[in-house]
Amino acid sequence: MDQHNNSTKDEMDQVALTIGKILQIGVIISAIIMLFGLILMLIDGDGGYANNYFPTNFSEVAFGLLTLKPYAVMMAGVFGLILTPVLRVVVSIYSFYKEKDFLYVTITTIVLIILMICFVFGVKG
């Protein structure tokens, strides 16, 4: 029985390390993408859009990325920064499932669903 508890603890420690690495890597990649967009903006002298227009949804950002528009590249970095903690929620669901803590699996899944609903519908200012 002790062997099982040690194995579970070791696995949970590994999951915690993985979550930490996901957060670190996500922030670093997002910062690199934003820095690349800033460099593009300094080279081009503008954001790539007329009349101070800013891409605000995924399809506009994706199209802007294909054409290397600086604001779109920076927005992709911001999206990556926002999605990094969402990935942490997904990994947490897995972690709670492995621990057989189904109450927290349910709660964390509800949090993920709420986050997804907010991303889809968003708040238009």
The beta-strand count equals: 0
Main sheet: strands, sense, barrel: none
Oligomer: single chain
Series of secondary-structure elements, N-terminal to C-terminal: HHHH
Assign a percent range to the helix content.
Answer: over 70%
How far is it from the N-terminal to the C-terminal residue, by CA?
56 Å
On the 0 to 100 scale, the average pLDDT is 85
How many helices in DSSP terms? Answer: 4
Low-confidence stretches: none
Q: What is the total domain count?
A: 1
Content of β-strand: under 5%
Task: Note the overall shape.
Answer: elongated
Rg is 19 Å
Structural commentary:
This protein has one domain (2-121). It is built from four helices and no strands. The chain is elongated and about 60 Å long. The model has no long low-confidence stretch (mean pLDDT 85). The protein has helices at residues 2-44, 58-66, 70-98, 102-121. The chain is mainly alpha-helical and 125 residues long. The longest helix has 43 residues, at 2-44.
